[in-house]
Amino acid sequence: MKSMDDYKRQQILQSTSYKMLERIAIYMDTYHLDPIIGLIPGIGDLISAILAIPFIYYSLFTLKSIPLTLAIINNILLDIFLGLIPMWIGDFIDIFNLSFKRNIQLILGYINDDPIIIRRIRKKVILLFITMIILGILIIFMLRLTVVFIQWIIKFL
């Protein structure tokens, strides 16, 4: 007979919301929709960020883990930052970044009480918070740079 923890774990893994996260990760990283969508300047990165919101929601409200949520937000911010690197270099790098797969692995590690993943994330909470702030600043800088670049191109047209 399964313990209550095993039963709850099975319910979570079979839930519609968890399966949705898995599907998003598969489409965005396995089928490389993330870098393909990222080819659409500005809008592609916005779509990618919107598709990452369920991961944040799930980690914060279903698994109730702030350290996990910080790790997921860092993966998302890194993905956005890389996508903003101009001349499609960021989209090429995004092929190898696989932030959605990393996020689903982190969530699965929490669901399965993987001590390595849990310990690694909890040890890095302060670093994750600092990294989140730095990535936020870099994203703002890249967005401003993108606007200037677009204005420069329009000026020559």
UniProtKB/TrEMBL annotation:
What stretches pass through the bilayer? 36-60, 66-89, 125-154
Entry keywords, A to Z: Membrane, Transmembrane, Transmembrane helix
Would the keyword Transmembrane helix turn up in this protein's UniProt record? yes
InterPro entries linked: DUF4112
Q: What is this protein called?
A: DUF4112 domain-containing protein
